[in-house]
Fold this sequence. Notes:
mainly alpha, disordered N terminus
Amino acid sequence: MTRTTIISQALLLTFALGGSGAxxxxxxxTLNVDxxxxxxxxxxxxxxxxxxxxxxxxxxxxxxxxxRQQLAGEWSTFKPAEKASCIGSERSALPxxxxxxxxxxxxxxxxxxxx
Length: 115
């Protein structure tokens, strides 16, 4: 795959994951974490119990935004191919920054071990 193809695929995947039209290949993608957080909230205790699904949902979204900030700090340490591959993996699942950063960190660690 050429670098241009990888970057093009990464941009397309970013848009598919809810990215804005102004996204660049060097930017952390903007993911719609609402579906994954709603799923987590549905697994929470009944609404009458302490906090319930609404609180779990808001905590999940807050946690995902914290992970996105961490990812932004590490973004430049990942290779374009790693970014494209992991963004593609997130497309096949419910997207989350937690899943994306885990994928990227594993890819980076494997690359460093192979040196």
